[in-house]
């Protein structure tokens, strides 16, 4: 049975529809997300090379909120005038926010010196605060460093998003005092329920957000019919053979794929914004609230955060 649709619209606060793996199918993915009840999608750029794609996607789709930033993985490849380019892009696109920026000490992230990452992040946070825009922060295994930087810089009235939050429950209060919101993605569905519940229960209800982080972070689910598959994705085709024909639920293949069990369905498959509802369902079950109650809370939170002067949400209100 396909997942029930809640009446409250959804807000995917962090995704990458400009990613080369899915950009060609982005129009159909946006259509599928809208049909699934996702009203807004914040598309985060990661380097100078993709900012223009994000801008154009926003111009052609009223539901797309553009975000421009330099991801820590690409910090060492920045141009000499990267910051002026970023400032120009943000000022010329008043509905845009800052992101994806941050600190990363994963195996991939350690390829870039931490001092460079910190310096690049500091400059982008200063710009976000100056322009009064929210900022989406990527933080992996670098929470102490991020804590130190935020304590040095102070608060951010426009708000910051700790995207796909993977820190401990103890860090929630630390970051909340700096204006942080905490966003949870499909990556968090891989965390043991007891651990995930301890983290989510510490997050103030008015600071909780949801995201897909697509095309990565496909949610783990027990029921494959709750997921949407990216057309043409070989990994999805292997799990749900009909998925190469559309981007809808794999319901007709349930009997063939359900035997794979939780975590074995579509391993390595690409994600898309329509799967935000599966994440909503997972978080609601752990917090022991209804999907409708949680959907209303996170949509209100996201709408508040993204209702800065010049934003699309303000213009359409």
UniProtKB/TrEMBL annotation:
InterPro entries for this protein: Metal_Hydrolase, TatD-like
Top-level lineage group: Eukaryota
Signal sequence residues: none
Record protein name field: TatD related DNase
Organism encoding this protein: Sphagnum jensenii
Lineage: Eukaryota, Viridiplantae, Streptophyta, Embryophyta, Bryophyta
